[in-house]
Amino acid sequence: MRTTEVSVVMVMLCVMMVDADVKPQRDFNLRMFAGRWYRVGLAYDSSSFTPFRDKVKASMGIITALPSGNVNLTMWDATPLGCVRKVYNYEKTSVPGQFTYFSTRHNMVKDITVVDTNYSDYAVVLKHKVFNREYTQVALYGRSQAVRIDVIMKFKAFALSRGFPRDSILTPPPAENCPPSRSGR
Fold first, then answer.
1. What is the pLDDT confidence band of residue 4, given thresholds at 50, 70 and 90?
2. Can you spell out the DSSP letters for the chain?
3. pTM of the entire structure?
């Protein structure tokens, strides 16, 4: 029994240390971060996602900073069923650039960290949670659907450093008419 407790504590410490090396953007500014973003890169190695990798399109989102410091994110994703709109509520933490949100799909709270951004062109965002196993996703966002190659390389290098296999790192093509023109695009 004692060995099991020590093993559990050691695993938890290792997981915390792995996540601890990811720091948010220095001097993160939520007001500058707010606005329209396109998810133009994605690293996700879930086996349930594998069959859909070649169907992923770049999606668009609008980040709205709330007076409380929380964030509303409205995302439009092109799916086989059409353009789907989803709204996420990110709660601020005590660390600027780090948020939490409740994933209804996974029925758990996840951590969101804005790892790197220059606010005007790109942002690299890490979504992370440990629950029975580690759930991690890295996303590259651009203010437009086209980002510079050096930014894509920086995103890929970060995803590889987090342990993602090369074939799980995507830069999907743009979605057509998603969101539809009348949706504030």
1. very low
2. -HHHHHHHHHHHHHHHHHHHT--PPTT--HHHH-EEEEEEEEEE--TTTGGGGGG--BEEEEEEE-TTS-EEEEEEEEETTEEEEEEEEEEE-SSTTEEEEEETTTTEEEEEEEEEE-SSSEEEEEEEEEESEEEEEEEEEESSS---HHHHHHHHHHHHHTT--GGGEE-PPBPSSSS-GGGT-
3. 0.82
